[in-house]
TrEMBL record:
Reactions performed catalytically: N-acetyl-alpha-D-galactosamine + ATP = N-acetyl-alpha-D-galactosamine 1-phosphate + ADP + H(+)
PROSITE patterns referenced in this protein's UniProt entry, alphabetically: GALACTOKINASE, GHMP_KINASES_ATP
GO molecular function, one term: ATP binding
Subunit-structure text: Monomer.
Domain of life: Eukaryota
A cellular component term, taken from the record's GO annotations: cytosol
Biological process annotations from GO: galactose metabolic process
EC class name: transferase
Name of the protein: N-acetylgalactosamine kinase
Domain spans labelled Galactokinase N-terminal: 25-73
């Protein structure tokens, strides 16, 4: 690996129950033993929702839950994928004829994204095959980035099989780009934290260029993840991509309003950078330039002086071309205010005032309100769970991940943690049909985990 690439660690598999079980299952499945294992973590985004693809910094941390893949390179050109979860069927294909079906976000397509990303980055053909057994303990469709962890894991698997070297930053950028093969127009946060995470610290992730800065979280409080039990697969609906396009359109209308070269602008951050003003001033610009009523495609075309055909083919993504309306004012207001909250959060962590936990909690509460009211990416169950968490002792609680289902993250003083967990369990899960014991997948405290790794058997 490159000096700043993902670490390779020697392990005694017999001392790691999960690795040992994976090795035995691999042996049973393929009749051989793995040559190495790769791990990539999921993540929880503490604050900074739906702003990475707008060019703004976010503040995630890796969770201890992860994707783990046991790997054996083979002499044939067949890529054989299996999963320890029987819900996910086996898949095999030629390593040199990768096809990713955007219409069906099946589990193996995320692996193929990472594989194809490395293949295309190096311009490779005539690739050797491999046998892979995937084991994940990140709850799927929960907003903890199980799909991106699988893309990252696959990218690192492919790089390792080929004996090639890349830095963590390069890997993160390739995997962020390659996940778009499945049709999700994400911004790169999930892949960046999966590779750049370090145990014990959250990270401020900045883009263009990609870099990560440690953010030391306050002692005396923990983050608790709670699953709403509403699944949301962002590649399976257009909600996510419509929001990406609304932000792109808002950026273009703001740029046009300020006589900037709007046709070159893609992200809301670019408008701020070109104007050289603060986030607070951008909120005023958005107030002046945009109206709260939804925009029709025809109205947008009128502002920009383009035809409907040009809007559809040159600006909108294929799966958003038929959207009847776009809410630009609300989306821009969310993005600029959320970007400011990320910077405030980092500053409070650095200054560590006596009431740091209360201040951070209030920023998380503001974030949820903005996600719910301006970005409209919450759902009734998430709102109920957030309220339950706050009533049960959290200083702050918000949805995390794309939204429309998935998980909440709450900031909870350590001394009330046992009471908090018991109250949320009783109020949200018990007697609701959501499961008597959500266990580690439903309700758990987490601390910042480490990033992607290659394990070799010692």
């Amino acid at each position: 690996m490159a000096a700043d690439g993902p670490a390779t660690r020697l392990v005694r598999v017999a001392e790691h129950p999960r690795l040992l079980k994976l090795k035995e299952m691999f042996k049973s499945k393929f009749g051989s033993i793995p040559k190495f294992y790769v791990r990539a973590p999921g993540r929880v985004n503490i604050i900074g929702e739906h702003i990475d693809y707008c060019g703004y910094s976010v503040l995630p941390m890796a969770v201890e839950q992860d994707m783990l893949i046991a790997v054996e390179p083979v002499k044939t050109q067949t890529l054989q994928l299996a999963n320890t979860n029987p819900l996910y069927p086996d898949f095999s294909t030629s390593a040199n004829a990768i096809q990713i079906d955007k219409t069906k976000p099946l589990w193996h397509n995320y692996f193929l994204c990472g594989f194809k990303g490395i293949q295309e980055h190096f311009g490779l053909s005539d690739l050797t095959g491999m046998n892979c057994l995937v084991d994940g303990n990140i709850p799927p469709s929960s907003g903890l980035s199980s799909s991106s962890a699988l893309v990252c894991c696959a990218g690192l698997v492919t790089l390792t099989v080929l004996g090639l070297k890349l830095s963590k930053v390069e890997l993160a950028e390739i995997c962020a780009k390659s996940e778009r093969y499945i049709g999700t127009e994400g911004g790169g946060m999930d892949q960046s934290i999966s590779f750049l995470a370090e145990e014990g610290t959250a990270k401020l992730i900045e883009f263009s260029p990609l870099r990560a800065t440690d953010v030391k979280l306050p002692s005396g409080a923990v983050f608790v993840i709670a699953n709403s039990c509403v699944e949301m697969n962002k590649a399976a609906t257009s909600h996510f991509n419509v929001r990406v396009m609304e932000c792109r359109l808002a950026a273009k209308l703001l740029a046009r309003h300020k006589s900037l070269q709007w046709d070159k602008v893609l992200r809301l951050e670019e408008v701020q950078a070109q104007l050289g003003v603060s986030l607070e001033e951008m909120l005023s610009v958005a107030e002046d330039a945009l109206h709260p009523e939804p925009y029709s495609p025809e109205e947008i075309c009128g502002y920009l002086g383009i035809s409907l055909e040009e809007l559809r083919t040159q600006i909108l993504s294929p799966n958003t071309q038929d959207a009847p309306v776009f809410k630009l004012y609300q989306r821009a207001k969310h993005v600029y205010s959320e970007a400011a909250r990320v910077l405030q959060f980092k500053q409070i962590c650095e200054d560590s005032p006596e009431d740091a936990v209360a201040q951070l909690g209030e920023l998380m509460n503001q974030s949820h309100r903005s996600c719910r009211d301006l970005y409209e990416c919450s759902c009734p169950e998430l709102d109920q769970l957030v309220d339950t968490c706050r009533r049960s002792g959290a200083q702050g609680s918000r949805l995390t991940g794309a939204g429309w289902g998935g998980c909440t993250v709450s900031l909870v003083p350590a001394d009330v943690l046992p009471t908090f967990l018991a109250r949320v369990h009783e109020a949200y899960y018990q007697g609701s049909g959501r499961g008597e014991a959500p266990g580690q997948h439903g309700l758990f405290a987490t601390k910042p985990g480490g990033g992607a790794l290659v394990f070799l058997e010692a």
